[in-house]
Amino acid sequence: MQPDISVKHLNKVYADGFRALNDINLDIERGEIFALLGPNGAGKTTLISIICGIANISSGEVKAAGYDIVKDYRKARESIGLVPQELHTDSFETVWGAVSFSRGLFGKPPAPDHIEKILKELSLWDKRNNRIMSLSGGMKRRLMIAKALSHEPQILFLDEPTAGVDVELRRDMWDMVRKLREKGVTIILTTHYIEEAEEMADRIGVIRQGEIILVEDKAQLMSKLGKKELRLHLQHPLETIPRQLALEPVELSKDGYELIYTFDSQQEQAGVARLLRTLGDLDIEYRDIQTRESSLEEIFVGLVNE
Ligand SMILES: Nc1ncnc2c1ncn2[C@@H]1O[C@H](COP(=O)(O)OP(=O)(O)OP(=O)(O)O)[C@@H](O)[C@H]1O
Fold this sequence. Notes:
Elements: E1 5-13, E2 19-28, E3 33-37, H1 44-51, E4 59-64, E5 67-68, H2 73-78, E6 80-83, H3 95-105, H4 112-121, H5 137-149, E7 155-159, H6 167-182, E8 186-190, H7 194-200, E9 203-208, E10 211-217, H8 218-225, E11 227-234, E12 250-252, E13 258-264, H9 270-281, E14 286-293, H10 296-304
Parallel strand pairs: 3-8, 3-9, 6-7, 7-8
Antiparallel strand pairs: 1-2, 1-4, 4-5, 9-10, 11-13, 11-14, 12-13
Helix pairs in contact: 3-5
Bound molecules: adenosine-5'-triphosphate (ATP).
Residues 14, 16, 18, 20, 38, 40-46 line the site of adenosine-5'-triphosphate (ATP).
InterPro entries: AAA+_ATPase, ABC_transporter-like_ATP-bd, ABC_transporter-like_CS, ABC_transporter_ATP-binding, P-loop_NTPase
Domain ABC transporter: 5-234
GO molecular function: ATP binding; ATP hydrolysis activity
């Protein structure tokens, strides 16, 4: 099956000569949740804007749902729903009116049943006759999603969907995204909350200074680049690391009560056995062992700071 989004040798140079995207190549499969991560100014919004037909391509080729976004603009755009970062809000229009109007923009016939369904799913049904300006910030964000879903798009872009929303709404959004995926909708989200990518994404792409530096299955990424840490709480403090352990990746805590051993997740655990044996030989007693895996956040910070 062809990918739902296909980006080939995409370059973007802004009018002032700034190169925001440099030879981007990326395929996103139907029904996957893809998280695009990158520091501020990396090019995430530029990439999304190009795929959604809001910004022009400098060179390269982009297809959405099989349609070329330049040659087949309307078809490509119809297949996409976009929840943008910025809230355009102060409106006298009603919730129902705004969502119905959005659907009409894509040339789709009215579908009150569909609009009722999405307003109910997004807990906006009770507010359907309210003016947008009277909604709370969280409700306005739900409305943005309702508008993006109004024309039943195959692909949904969420640009920083949960920036500044409370925990409850964040959970609701995650549930909603999962439900959409179950229906076969392809979802691309950008986020600064790495825990969001960790929780939601099937695959992760990292963009830095306009280049995709990594695309990887989330689970593989975590096992490939993650580190594990073993902490041994000692019965009696040490003043220095014993010379028998000098070659091991071991640190001693300031108070001397903890030995911290760090190793790659993929590495087989021979080093741990060796460490414990050496401690036994040296009569160093410990009362507790803890292990911890690095989070996606630690992996990400390591990647973008390289
Ligand atoms: N219209 C423009 N003209 C010139 N440069 C621009 C324009 N729009 C964006 N840029 C530059 O392109 C780069 C990428 O911006 P973009 O908004 O795509 O980043 P981002 O990854 O979405 O950042 P953030 O996480 O802060 O939203 C930045 O250096 C930005 O200053």
